[in-house]
């Protein structure tokens, strides 16, 4: 691929496996190319029920149409686990407000109260916040979505493992037991958040493994694949999910896989955009070993700007906590002033 000709590949997940169950070599080649060259692709045939994505997006719109006082019953500042509702313009990326409001949610588990001082990431575990009275349909729809996304995330990681000539179950151990996924139900607005300007969400790479994004038909997502200098749009494809890779996969493969930088432009004034990013992530205490690459892939690895014994791989939970603290400094200050110091 020559610079500035980035196209976002579309892969058909329903053709990923052959009738006897192993991955199709064509699918694996497409997946490897997309994950290495672009770091972004779209998938169709990923197994959602008919109408499931549309129904979820419609429910999300209904939530954000509720009066602010209803939405504020889920105020994320109440949650010590970085869950719940973040008001318009209060999330920060690259030091600037984002023109979006959202609900963050993760697996519903009991909070951990006594964790070792060097494992503060356990504070991320706990209960979600949902509009149980105003919109009781939202929770089951969002949790059912997370279930589908978890299967897709697992299947894609298996495909990625095979594409790196690893056993299919290479990542099963860190992901198998209590994966710490996170879903976001997001509403972008145009022309409302002055401090955001045209920033829907500022440019960033995702910190984890695999992100699965459902976006509506509005558009605005743009990406900067490795070796390119111009932002490429990820056009909405009806029935498709957008997939991108996170920094832990990039670091674990010495840059063979691309954690591609992306951003979302705020929609034009008066236009709303809804999306559901889902971050498929391992256990909070997962430690990821560098991936042994076969020589022909190692030769194509771009390397990473950080130290190769990158402490990033040492703990997924610490990475996630760092990301959550950065995005929500108000939550951190309120519940964990001592972490702010660190
Ligand atoms: O909403 C989108 O299209 C992408 C959002 C995103 O990149 C993120 O939340 O990490
Ligand atoms: Fe992202």
TrEMBL record:
GO terms for biological process: antibiotic biosynthetic process. Residues 178-282 form the Fe2OG dioxygenase domain. Keywords: Antibiotic biosynthesis, Iron, Metal-binding, Oxidoreductase. Pathway: Antibiotic biosynthesis. The keyword 4Fe-4S does not apply. It comes from the Bacteria. It holds the Pfam family DIOX_N. GO terms for molecular function: metal ion binding; oxidoreductase activity. PANTHER family: 2OG-FE(II) OXYGENASE FAMILY, PUTATIVE (AFU_ORTHOLOGUE AFUA_2G00750)-RELATED, OXIDOREDUCTASE, 2OG-FE II OXYGENASE FAMILY PROTEIN. Belongs to the iron/ascorbate-dependent oxidoreductase family. This is 2OG-Fe(II) oxygenase.
